[in-house]
Amino acid sequence: MKVIKIGGGCLKNGKAARAIVDLIAQKGLGQIFVLSAFGGITDMLIHGIDTALQNEAGIVPTIEEMTRHHHHIIDELMDVTPHAGQLKEELESFFLTLERYYYGISFTREATPRMKDIIASYGERISAVIISRVLESRGCRSEFLMPDVAGIITDGKYMDATADMTRTRDNLYPLIRSIMDERKMLFIPGFFGKSRDGEITTFGRGGSDYSAAVVAAAVDAEVLEIWKDTEGFMTADPDNIPDCRLIPELTYEEAAELSYTGAGILHARTVEPARKAGIGISIRNTFNPEAPGSMITDHARTTDRVIKSVSYTTDISVLKIFASGVGARYGILSQITDTLARDAVNIKSVVTSQTGISLLLARDDLDRSFNALKQVKPRPFRKMQKVSGVALVSIVGEGLHRNRGIAAKCFTAVSQAKVNIEMISFGTSNAALYFLVKERDLDQTINSLHSTFFD
Ligand code: ASP
Ligand code: MG
């Protein structure tokens, strides 16, 4: 039994969805599908919250637009008019509920994280019902199951939840096994679960990949396939390096590193549950289903190349904190990290020296972190400096720290591109070396690295 995740990029319109539905009809019996929302719908749902906050009059048009969008997809997917009509009627209750939530937000002028997660979950709820019903109308034995009903249990953190695997497995394993014993295809919305108190909580944007890994681990799937609109992991971002190549095999560690630094192929935490359960992840291109894609396991072949990919993210900023004797006094780092944790700031990385601490943060978190730390009394540091306009570059390959000469090769390539390195982190990961450059130097850096390691 496989768990197959279908991304929003493959469901971006009726035509794309039709190709997917054909593929599922051929190969889907006995498999579990975890679905994203139709492309653009999650954005629309979230945007609807802002609209509701600003102006009640925007709610009806928002709901109408969403309804129209889904009806259009249904019309593309279903040839038999009575079936399409029934499905549209079935979805009415979703749109009505959404409308009421939006009016609640508008009336109270308040959109809590809790409410945002409830609303954001509707894209996946709707896509799972539609795809399941469409397959049913084609004569397939198909069923859908909502994750809150099935019992995907989370830690309750809104918009960035993590699954409680023990509870989730206890709930999912018997339930899903009994459904699958009847040889059906099962559709489960990705992106969310519920807390132990029953609150809807999402796994963060792009979280359906993670949902799929959670389901795969909970039911002991033979493999997790991620169906995307791209080939798989590449040696670089094709936007920067048009002749970059596919990486056929990766280790969990390499995939995790590449997911954190931008590659955008997988939600950053997808690898965790799959690795723990020892389930391989296969990235497949829906528009080229015979292509091999990328396979992620713990025994991926390492090539003599060692380095598999050059990756980067520009969603990065640095908060430099100057304090004398950082390396000789205790408690400074914890005071800083505690303060930021209270403000729910995620620290991506920390580099310290005797005289300072540099925090790597998402761009949007920079000002908030600066302001939060300014309030700390007595102040444990001398001054702070905000650094933006930088990019975090990484070279990724399991075992790079064990292979002599890789760092030298990397920094020679950067220096040949006449680029100055702002900060380096090496040795904390077995599979990646990170450094910061000015954003304006990014293109030269990536080009030079890619030709050094791959030409
Ligand atoms: N629909 C959600 C998002 O757009 C989750 C996902 O597609 O993975 O972020
Ligand atoms: Mg995605």
Ordered list of secondary-structure elements with their pairings:
Elements: E1 2-6, H1 14-27, E2 32-35, H2 41-54, H3 59-77, H4 81-108, H5 113-120, H6 122-137, E3 142-144, H7 147-150, E4 153-154, H8 165-181, E5 185-189, E6 192-195, E7 200-202, H9 208-218, E8 223-228, E9 249-251, H10 252-260, H11 271-277, E10 281-285, E11 294-297, E12 309-313, E13 317-322, H12 332-342, E14 347-352, E15 356-361, H13 366-374, E16 383-387, E17 390-396, H14 406-416, E18 423-426, E19 432-438, H15 442-454
Parallel strand pairs: 1-2, 1-8, 2-5, 3-5, 4-6, 8-10, 9-11
Antiparallel strand pairs: 6-7, 10-11, 12-17, 13-15, 13-16, 14-15, 17-19, 18-19
The structure holds aspartic acid and magnesium ion.
Aspartic acid binds at residues 8, 36-37, 42, 123, 190-191, 205-209.
Q: How do you describe this structure in short?
A:
Helices cover 42% and strands 20% of the residues.
